[in-house]
Amino acid sequence: MPRRAPALALLLALPLLAAATRVTGEPTAGFHGRGPGGFSLEGKTHQLRVEDDGTLLRIVVPLAGLQTGIALRDRHMRERYLEVEKYPEAALELPWSAVKLPEDGQTAEGTAPGKMTLHGKSHEVQVKYRVARSGSRYQVSGTVPLNITDYGIDVPSYFGITVQPDVEASATFSAERA
Amino acid sequence: MRSSLGRRLQLLRLGLLVGLALPGAAARAYPWMIQHGYTNCSGCHVEPSGFGLLTEYGRAQAQIVLPTLWGKIPEAVEPTTGILYGAVPLPSWLNVGLSTRGAVLGTTTSQGTSWRDILMIADLRAGLTAGPFLASVSFGYVPTGATLAALTNQPHDNIVSREHWLGVRLADQRLYLLGGRLNLPFGLRNVEHNAFVRSATRTDTNSAQQYGGEVVWDGPGVRAALMGIAGNLLIRDPAYREQGYSGYVEGAFGNAFTLGLSSLVTHADLGVSSFANPFLPVDRFSNASDVWRQSHGLFTRWHVGGPWVLLAEADLLVETATGVPRDLGGAGFVQADVEPIQGLHLIVTGEALRQSELNSYGAWFSVSWFLFTYCEVRLDTVFTEFGVPGGGHEPSFSVLGQLHFSM
């Protein structure tokens, strides 16, 4: 029995890596930015989809629905900075091989290399993630620090408040894997 | 049976006391702005702890998120940078604000009903920014009240300066060093300056400012301020001036919830009277010697979700003086603010006070409507059960209607 345990774990893990991932419930994606002093800014959307070919996990966030709580600011964000008509989505690609998945009932945390595509530009990033597993259901959250100027996005400045170019992008979602 | 004259005098006294205590909102300080994710105040206000003079960004927000838009699409609003609806442009180093607030106050007690009209505020404010240096000053006229902020020394019709200070801001605008006449950093900086938590702690923005030096930290997730109080130099007799400290530290947990801790300790050679309960026949600390006053408490701002915001504050009050029994009391405040359509706020407030061993309770229902840009109409209905010596309560019902222009 003990000798069979590693093989059993491998058997369980292989289909997991190859399986399709389906988002359940209401996902949240967004960013957290800062300005001078204690000024902070949060954008959120509940639109997120996951594409999974078994080797690469791609988390895609349509940006048109991103909201910061103030409609005019949202418009400026969409039109002046993110240019959503030209670049409607942000995407984060993660190789499954870099992700540590937990056993049933366990939680895994770690940092994995990934590729962020935003505003038509792609850069390597480090993704901090946390995955909690319950059977075939996974609760996933992750953050990516990024500098918007790396992606060709102008630094937002409005009536004397200039947002810092370093922001933290984040996503939280539940997923089921067959 | 009281004589008619005695009754009228009592009513006049009560009307004056409640009137002095009740002239509603002094100026602009809206803790419910947390609804829009604002946990800090310095983006919109020249004073980093919030209140009064607006920055360029604050003037823009006052046009974007405060008023009812009357069919205009929120994302189509294009704010102007100047004042007077953009008619007067301002350079980025200068902020100017005008504020007028007129009101009609009706107060009903068991002795009858009185009505009076009040010009609560007619203030001009200006602020300069030159590199890291800041300066801010306000001047105004009030026919009655706000005597603690009066530059002139008349029983009525005074020129007031609620605040005037110089400062420097450092470390990417996170650290401020301020000196002058400043609002006391304590608790919620709510507009209802006559709320028990403001009047009993004497930390309102109407006239309770003090002279001193203040260090403010306005950082990500945490804001804090500590002020050394040198006294209110506008009080002519130095014996009545309070010295001590006042401060708060407030943590933001995300963009929707904050929790803060406040503390204030002051000492005066002679005590001044408090108007927190106008039915106190004798304030035993008034003119008492060696008066120590302490307030310590918690406050919170919570954007519950959608248009709902909850504000709350609870303070312990301790007052001692030579030859006077120590007074241990407290004040509490809970307010729910819902904005069903942009600009229209329905506000329900409950408050309680224990002072001089008397318990008082108040309930407010208020409607605040930012009808147009820079224009607010507000109606407060306030029912208060003031504790009276010997037991029991004296009910008081007040209706306060206000028209407020601030730009």
Secondary structure layout:
The complex is a heterodimer of chains A (178) and B (407).
Chain A (H helix, E strand, L loop, with lengths): L3 H15 L2 E14 L5 E6 L3 E4 L3 E7 L8 H11 L7 E7 L11 E12 L2 E14 L2 E11 L9 E2 L2 E2 L3 E12 L1
Antiparallel strand pairs in A: 1-2, 1-11, 3-4, 4-5, 5-6, 6-7, 7-8, 8-11, 9-10
Chain B lengths: L3 H18 L34 H9 L29 E16 L2 E19 L2 E10 L15 E3 L3 E7 L4 E8 L13 H4 L10 E10 L2 E10 L11 E10 L4 E14 L18 E17 L2 E14 L2 E18 L2 E12 L2 E15 L2 E13 L5 E14 L1
Antiparallel strand pairs in B: 1-2, 1-17, 2-3, 3-4, 3-5, 5-6, 6-7, 7-8, 8-9, 9-10, 10-11, 11-12, 12-13, 13-14, 14-15, 15-16, 16-17
Index terms:
heterodimer, A: mainly beta, Lipocalin, 9-stranded antiparallel beta sheet, two-stranded antiparallel sheet, 15% helix, B: 407 residues, mainly beta, 8% helix
* Low confidence ranges of chain A: 8-18
CATH architecture of chain A: Beta Barrel
What structural category arises from helix and sheet content of chain A? mainly beta
Total number of domains of chain A = 1
Number of strands of chain B: 17
What global shape of chain B is seen? Answer: globular
Q: What value does the average pLDDT of chain A take?
A: 89
**Strand line-up in the sheet with most strands of chain B:** 1-2-3-5-6-7-8-9-10-11-12-13-14-15-16-17
Q: How would you name the oligomeric state of the polypeptide chains in this document?
A: heterodimer
Supply the number of helical segments of chain B: 3
How is the largest sheet of chain A built, in terms of strand order? 2-1-11-8-7-6-5-4-3
Question: How would you characterize the overall build of this protein?
Answer:
The complex is a heterodimer of chains A (178) and B (407). Chain A has helices spanning 4-18, 71-81; strands spanning 21-34, 40-45, 49-52, 56-62, 89-95, 107-118, 121-134, 137-147, 157-158, 161-162, 166-177. By secondary structure, chain A is mostly beta strands. In chain A, a hairpin with a 2-residue loop joins strand 7 and strand 8 (137-147). Chain A has two helices and eleven strands. Chain B is mainly beta. Chain B has one domain. A 16-stranded antiparallel beta barrel of chain B has the order 1-2-3-5-6-7-8-9-10-11-12-13-14-15-16-17. Chain B is globular. Chains A and B meet through strand 2 and helix 2 of A and helix 2 of B.
